[in-house]
Amino acid sequence: MAIMDVKENVRLKLELDGGMDGDKQIIKSKTYSKIKPTVENEALYEVAESLADLQTYPIYKVKRLEEIHLVRE
Fold first, then answer.
1. Cβ neighbours around 47 below 10 Å, total
2. DUF1659 domain: from which residue to which, for each copy (predicted)?
3. Cα 38–69–30 angle (5° rounding)?
């Protein structure tokens, strides 16, 4: 029997550059929920770039967080 993956929850996480504290990088983050599981990475990144313009800090990383439910067929 094959195992099928079903995407249940997708979130967009923006990690923002909060500057330095001595020699330690400060990372601030914002997470956006209820992203359509079928969204392409390119489209998600474009949204992240648009949201970056609304942030106080510049983007450090863009992350796609997925929860996947594994089901036996």
1. 15
2. 3-70
3. 60
